[in-house]
Amino acid sequence: QGFAEKHSQSDDFLMIQTLGSAPRPVRLYDYFPLIVFAAMVGCVVGVEGVDMLRAAMTAAAFLVIGGWVDAKKATSYVPWDLMLLIGSMLGVSRAISRSGLADMIGKAVSDAGVSPHATLFLVFGITSFMTELTTNNAAAGLVFPVALSLADRMGVSYRPFIIAVMTSASASFITPIGYQTNMMVWAPGGYKFSDFSKIGVPLSALYMTCNCLLIPLFWRFDEVMPPRDVQLELITCGGEFLALRRAPQRAPPAVSVGLKRFE
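Above: the chain sequence. Below: its structure as tokens.
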């Protein structure tokens, strides 16, 4: 029991089963956190004016009060290293936007006469490359302002580019260090580093081609643009991307993965 309590949240050990005790039977009451999580996501995505921070804190309070989460262990469930990385990348993302680098890149691509479809492939490829070296959150945070600037400079809808960023940021197939699940099977499966590249490169190329051809069919480049004073917010939950929406007027910037105001 002492070992399990000490290392249950450790990255060095994967607790599969507790020895010496029978698992408690699952009750209907144990599925209530799924309802709380679904309600939180639904409120954030579907209800205007509900920001991610308040919805998450409300859901967490329900889980603690109901006894599903131990308040004393709650801090050990938070990946602080990931939070630090995301926060750092948000700062870099804001710097890219405010320094004018995003506008410079957008202007260069626009002046080169590249078509929106080709630019979509470019955005998808850059995000896929960066997510192999960093996390999906960091890659999306860096490319997000560039994608918005590209769409603004080309005079097309930003939605195809943002969807491309969201889908490519979580498509890490080429290296074993790009995502946690890749590393989980790397050593136990006896794979070499090159094994991931042999399968991952053609898989990533196929995934990029299918996405870049299908995305404009559902989110058209000639879609009506929002007013130029609208602020956009990329919503995440648990490190995964959920949706893009108009940010509420008083939304805390700390919970936004990427923000840009069209001026």
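The first strand starts at residue 231 and ends at 237.
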